[in-house]
Amino acid sequence: MKEYFSHDHHARTDEKIIKMLKDLKPEGYGLYWMIVEMLHENQGSIPKDYELLAYELRTQCERIKAVCENYDLFYERDGRIFSMSVDRRLQERSEKSVKAKASAIKRWGGNANAMPSQCERIDDPMRSEGYKRKVKERKEKGEGETDPPTVLELREYAESEQLKADPQKFHDYQTAKGTWKTMVDWKAAFRYWNRTEHPDKAPIEQAVVTPHKVWMDTAGEKTRWSNSFHDKHTAGGKCMFCGRAVKAPAICDCSGYSSGFAKHMESAV
Known about the structure:
With about 270 residues, this protein is mainly α. It contains ten helices and three strands. The protein folds into three domains: about 1-115, no CATH class; about 130-195, no CATH class; about 210-265, no CATH class. Strand 2 (about 75) and strand 3 form a beta hairpin. Helix 1 crosses helix 3 (about 60-70), helix 2 packs across helix 3 and helix 9 packs antiparallel against helix 10.
């Protein structure tokens, strides 16, 4: 199951973010959100290990340290990195979960067995507890079953309610199964039959392409190009241009590596 966290659409206008953008350009903005994602994935905190973070995000330690320490976007405690905004969102999520659980307990009286399964709809007139209770009451009172509707009555009801289900098919099925005897409300049963055969399909929402999404896609592609160049030309722990030992995530500062990297990135998307 995929999880998500809320993202303020005006985050880029925050004073702290603006200062970071001024110094670190869009790369800093991307690093900030990647760290926020990591915090959400790890219950709100990650180890303060800039070298490890730089290697994982394929950047330099100095840039990770700047994002984490220079703009009051994160804070450190006991050797771990936290974020006030992430703390707040996690707290809100926890409170909603507690309220939802309390509401479920209140509704079902603390009886987990009374709650419907994922495959059972509570509005199903053929399976709900209300339906079973009415059938039981009818049997206890000795009430006889009502006459089943004719196909013509079903067709007229379908036209009045604009139902797409085939009245003849519904009538034949109920007759073959012998369910008319215990059916409490054939109209409700017919509506449910219609929903199962012709479920409403919500229109597919078109993805909204925003300038931020375009930039993030482009930045991600450039990051992959940058990483591929670095991995290729530092294979074996040595720069392929000058032979100098390079320990990840460090980048060789020789002129050959710099000029090669510049030419490589010119062709990036």
